[in-house]
Amino acid sequence: MKIILSRKGFDSSAGGYPSPHLVDSGRLISFPIPEDEDVDTGVSYSDLRVDQNHTYLDLMEQLGIRKYSNGSSVHLDPDINASVPQRKHSEWRGIFGQSSAAQAHLSKKKVKEGDLFLFFGWFKDAIRTATGYRYVNGTHRHIIWGYMQIGDIERINKAGQYDNWKLCHPHYKFRDRDMNTAFIASTALTFDSSIPGCGTFNYDESLVLTQNGQRNRSLWNLPSFFHPSMGTTMSYHKSLYTKKGKPIWQLRDDHCTLQSVGRGQEFVIEGNDEIEKWAKELIQRQYSLKQK
Questions:
Q1: What is the number of other CB atoms lying within 10 angstroms of the CB of residue 16?
Q2: How much is the pTM?
Q3: Which residue in 9, 80, 190, 283 has the fewest CB atoms around it within 10 Å?
Q4: Pairwise CA distance, residues 287 & 282, whole Å
Q5: Are 247 and 259 spatial neighbours (Cβ–Cβ below 8 Å)?
Q6: Cα separation of 9 and 66, whole Å?
Q7: Where are the domains of the chain?
């Protein structure tokens, strides 16, 4: 099983703000990026629900993000939480779409059914006040916020006929994308049939990638078995040093640090069974905590 760390949600170039970690509830609300201006997905931020009384747009406005109106079209991808758009289709399964160079990378790495995506993004703590939520300064971090095990992979063609429940996804709705591909979640995890094949996480320290106390959110603190000396390979992170001699990976006593790259959406990890065990335990721990 390959583990793929996939950067998704608002970032400095798409969206321009961090997604919020709601400290009072522990929820990680990953804001999906806006769609291109010439594409209408039929879904706006006011269509996505935080709860029964509040939309993503409501939360964004509380946090001072006022650049997206009711008409801003959303690229809801990955779509792994059925309650966010409150869909009711009985056949729904999570979908993650990819295309162009990013899909070429996944194809080159031979990502297949059974492999596991862990979605991470840029988050900032948000606390509730009398007037709504506000961000807490100095809390920028990369955090893993969701997962999806691949059940099926479907190449999307412009003239293709597809199941109705898939057609609301932006990669099926707007098909003029190079190498347009859908990764469809398994119904349940192959290694634990009691857990759905996709889902989102609540905050836990084990989900934080950024090294504690670091203002540079791209400097990660990882278990030592991630280090290349342990036989592990991570795409876009194969070298130990930059061309200028600065360390990319550093092995410590009980962990390693990684200066992760700014480019690349998916980092495919393989070569060490401990990585697979780590990812499985991460999901199982989260599911156990949510059931309490």
A1: 12
A2: 0.96
A3: 190
A4: 9
A5: yes
A6: 17
A7: 3-291
